[in-house]
What does this fold into?
Amino acid sequence: MAKKQIDIVAEVMDLDSNIVPYLKRIERSLIVSIPIMMDDGKLKIFEGYRVHHSTIRGPGKGGIRYSLNVTLDEVKALAIWMTWKSSLLNLPFGGAKGGIFVDPLKLSKKELERLTRRYTAEIINFIGPDIDIPAPDVNTNAQIMAWIMDVYSMQKGRTIPGVVTGKPIEIGGSVGRDSATGMGMFYVLEALCNKLNYDLKSMSIIIQGFGNVGGWIANILYNYGSKIFAVSDIFGGIYSEKGLNIKELLEWRDQGKFLRDFNKNNYKHISNEELLTTKCDVLVPAALENQITNINADKINCKIILEGANGPTTPEADKILHNKGIFVIPDILANAGGVCVSYFEYIQDIHSYFWSLDRVNKELKKIIVDAFENVYKISKEKNLILRTAAYIIALSRVAKAVELRGIFP
It folds into this structure.
């Protein structure tokens, strides 16, 4: 899917045929075995990955996820999308990604720590402030970043906070990093609504995914005054035509509980499949990739899709949605707030000078709205969907870097 998107945009751009295979290839991939002594005294060996797609514009940047969906191909695709995300925002980063094939819910905290520390030891020569800077992703968080930073720093003999972003504030993290992806999504959605003369406060919202990304955008929109009709987690969702109380649901989630077990008189339980095709103004797929496909795209009933997840919409679905008149704010723009504030954290660590939340959000809004304006302008000038316009900007910057640096040797 990631490669197909490159082909589509390369044709529109009339990109140099020598550059296309260069952009589609992965610079390097690392597969590691992670032996862990479990709490019951038995040895279990997990498999982990770290992939660099491109470091031609700067160090690799991308999250680490712990999931049973993790495969080498998935990590490669996610690394490619990180390259375009960094490029679109004109950040001095390339694209990278990592993951471990594991169900973290089945591990104790001590097992999770041992897994993270051993994984870090295995990829230690693959990461670093000048090489590749990991961050949290699906099922990983600030605590896991702290363990990675500690292992790396202990091996290097000095504290190196810049090796990861998304760390706890107490050890070099940035204020506003937790909410960054959600805030970026809000700024982009607000900007598009302004272009289309939509009143965001009066719009109905449905959100697939209620983790860090889905939870934050739900909370931000709820506080803003929009009505959230439905949200879901891995086991399904809940719906109410009168709107959900997001504060109540976040408290439930933060106790480690799932939405399927939340009961309230006017709340209806629905599947993730039903949720995606329920009528609304704004649909936010904020879970995993390949959620909107040629199979269900024709049933999507909304005005705007705001992609919180990476790669939730297939190229085939894009065509169907475009024909239906649905605006899709692509992932590399919509959810780029996380990498943007990661960049701010990286800068703060290097200079040992930390910003206020107001400054973080102000800088985030400027960068992400400027990127949106550029994308929207190209989409109108060339009569393209927003995704293609975003990719034209992102790919052209990387292609220009390749052209200027040349091919070694």
